[in-house]
Amino acid sequence: MSNSIRKWVFVLLVPIVVLGILGSVGGAGHKLPLQSANVDVHDTASLQRGFKYYVNYCMGCHSLKFSRYNRVAEDIGLNADNGFSEDDVAKLLKEEIIFTYDEEGKQTKTGELMKNAYSPKAAAQAFGTSVPDLSLVGRSRGPDWIYSYLKGFYLDPSRPTGVNNIVFDKVGMPHVLGNLQGWQVLEHAEGEGEHHGAPKLVLQKPGKLSPAEYDKMVRDLTNFLTYVSEPAQLSRYTIGIFVILFLLLFFGVAYLLEKEYWKDIH
């Protein structure tokens, strides 16, 4: 085998091996296939609900350090195009969304980053590990993973928090949405001999929401996190179409120029 062939084999195989390793690491703890989140980041009503859910149930621990309150509000439809003035948006954010204050007791401003006051040290003492920022979880994990994770908690007395997760085994996070979803148990279908069949989650104690209502809530929350991880996706498809149209037009003009320049040369 020549050196050039070896080089190309190396170039092609290394990414495949790396992706395989990452896939196996990322899939640790997966006992069930991921469920389809079926989210739409252009659904502003869903994003607005997800924004509200995130602030109320998640942001006490998880910050979004790359996002600003007013930018998020603008992106999800709380803007002049939909009849909201800057004063209306600022009032809404201060009354319904922003619950953090600085050391002087002043409320966080609408243009500041979405951080919280939960220190990594306090999180490590409470949960045994630091609480991650979720700015990029939509890109690193994907919407299907987030959706399945939020639906995958089940009772497990062996864990410090009393719960485990079908997607993230030995998870350190408590089930903060347990009173809404209810409490699930992990059951295995009967198998042959000493082997169990496929596991499944069974709702043992209902929560405040019905399964359909909880699914809708989790989908909205997943949609919001998917948007937050890459706000540019709201406009990149439209921009991409215009770029392609421009390139097609430029190609036509360039072709005609080429024909004109070389028409007398054979």
Could you walk me through the main structural features you see in this protein, from its secondary elements to its overall organization?
This protein is mainly alpha-helical and 266 residues long. The strands form 3 sheets. It has a two-stranded antiparallel sheet with strand order 1-2. The protein has 2 domains: 31-231, Cytochrome Bc1 Complex, Chain D, domain 2; 240-266. Strand 3 (153-155) and strand 4 form a beta hairpin. Helix 2 (44-58) packs across helix 9 and helix 7 packs antiparallel against helix 9. The protein has helices spanning 3-26, 44-58, 69-75, 86-97, 120-127, 137-140, 143-150, 178-181, 211-229, 233-261; strands at residues 64-68, 113-114, 153-155, 163-165, 182-188, 199-206. The chain starts with a helix and ends in a 5-residue tail after the last helix. Residues 21-30 have low confidence and may be disordered. The radius of gyration is 25 Å and the shape is globular.
Principal-axes geometry comes out as globular
The share of residues in extended strands comes to: 5-15%
Q: Provide a count of the helices.
A: 10
User: Which percent bin holds the helix content?
Assistant: 40-55%
What is the CATH first-level class name of the largest domain?
A: Mainly Alpha
Structural class: mainly alpha
